[in-house]
Amino acid sequence: MARRPLPRILSNGGAQLARSRELARTAADSATDVLHPLITITRGLRRLAAAGRRRWSDTPKDKRGQLLFPVASVILVVALAPYGPLLAVIILMAAAAWYGRDRTPPAPEGPDEIQTQRLRSLYEALVPFFSIAEDPAPLYAHGGEWDKAFPAYEFDRGDRITHLVIQYPAYFPDGEPEARARVEHLLAAKSGRGREYRFTWHEEGNQLTVAVLAPLPTDIAAQRFVTAPGETVLGLTDASEVQRTLPLERGEERCEMPPVVWRTGIRSTEPHLLAVGQPGSGTSTLLRSVALQALQYGDVVVVDGGGTGDFACLTGRDGVLAVECALAGALASLEWAATETERRLIAVNRARQAGHPPPDDTQRPLWILLDRPSTLAHVAAADGHKDPQSLLQAPLRHGRAANVTVVVAEQFDSLDALSDSVLQHTRARVVLGPATGEQLTAVLGAPPSTTPVAQVPPGRGYARLGAGPVLRLQVPATPDPYDDATSEAHRQAVMDLLPPRTTPADAEPDRLPPPAEPEPVPAEAAVAKSP
């Protein structure tokens, strides 16, 4: 059947709308220019009337009669004098035009003395990087013209650079990371330490753009995020880096903030996560935030290798299968998780072979959260037990097909204690707290696009999901509600998200349901292929 062409309003409606908006904008600008004298006079009359009302209000009541007498005399003289009303109108319009003029002081052209000195010193510092002896007309030379090298710049109220465009010569090796890093380090030091900078290199135009990033908000408390099943909010990031925003509660206000969303489940490309940081950087806070979101749709097994009790608030909650701190309990929980993963694989594989949908007991997500597994590894080695991380091979390798997600948090000084399976299968990475560029690159697999700073609040860091870009990250405030140092607002926010207790905290519950015994199946059907 022949296709009818689209109407013109649908085929080229975008161009017509753009032209209409341009015509409307031009007409508005022209009308403003034509009516500018009338606007000025009207504004002046309003100011004169306001001044008259203020004078009348400030005059005491017993002296207002004395004020009315000279005013009435002036009106009478104007009315009786030849051409008096006309002259009065002309004088009034002139006074209104004078008082209605725009009194905003014009913006100063160019930088002031302090800003000029900062730009000149920055230009001199860049001379060794952007000049060679063979250049007949160098753009950078000692005592040269800095305004040709810096076509655009902005300063804050403290006369510190907030935005700078740098023009550099074409022979500078901007494709070499080492050369870039030297220039970026110099610019960060000369422009002001303690701030985060984003450096954007435009190789085609030989330009470098330096932008100062505003700090990410730290007052976003834990809350119920508007996400779909299988989506977990790791934290907040810059609006220019993601194309999505979430409605959040910031104190008593509602706002839209850009999140870092990690997708898990059967169709996830990064089904497992590794979080690394220094002590006190917020890795346990990230695990609590992930656990509260996971409990909305699935079950959670928590292994607290550090034994700090940071996850005691989850004990006995609905959907929390176990919260283990001791080695024996951790081994039993992880062994059950490995057996449960295998059971799910077999059940899903049988259902597919029979042409049936997967069973319902395999669709509920299972989350395994491990905080500092290296500590348990040392204890296991001392007692002659196997490393608990060896029980993660099945959940890590086949977790995506079995709807099992593993989240591991570790510190920098114990990274070498992580097993190869953990490092290989945790392609979603988070680094929290202060870290050097080398540490960030080693964990994330790529350097960040911003300069790391030495002092950061808890929960601040970087995130990278698979082969995606490195994003700045601020984890929502999810402290331990049983900690005395926790504020009442943040404590109540966490308590509101916790599921109801199904088992008293002081009781001895059955930690895990007994694993189902898998029936014998052919060897080729033992492991289901991931979709």
Provide structural commentary.
With about 525 residues, the chain is α/β, with parallel strands linked by helices. It folds into 3 domains: about 35-60 and about 75-100, no CATH class; about 115-210, no CATH class; about 230-495, Rossmann fold (3-Layer(aba) Sandwich), CATH 3.40.50. The chain has 15 helices and 16 strands. Strands 11-10-12-13-9-14-15-16 form an 8-stranded mixed sheet, sandwiched between helices. Strand 6 and strand 7 form a beta hairpin. The radius of gyration is 34 Å and the shape is elongated. Mean pLDDT is about 85; it is low at about 10, about 505-510 and about 515-530.
Provide a brief overview of the structure.
The chain is an alpha/beta fold and 531 residues long.
SSE topology sketch:
Elements: H1 8-11, H2 13-34, H3 36-58, H4 64-80, H5 84-99, H6 113-126, H7 146-149, E1 152-155, E2 161-167, H8 177-191, E3 196-202, E4 207-213, E5 231-236, E6 246-250, E7 253-257, E8 259-263, E9 273-277, H9 283-294, E10 299-304, E11 320-324, H10 327-353, E12 366-371, H11 373-383, H12 393-402, E13 404-411, H13 420-425, E14 428-432, H14 437-444, E15 460-465, E16 471-474, H15 488-497
Parallel strand pairs: 9-13, 9-14, 10-11, 10-12, 12-13
Antiparallel strand pairs: 1-2, 2-4, 3-4, 5-8, 6-7, 14-15, 15-16
Give structural attributes.
single chain; 531 residues; alpha/beta; Rossmann fold; 3 domains; 8-stranded mixed sheet; 4-stranded antiparallel sheet; 15 helices; 16 strands; 37% helix; disordered C terminus
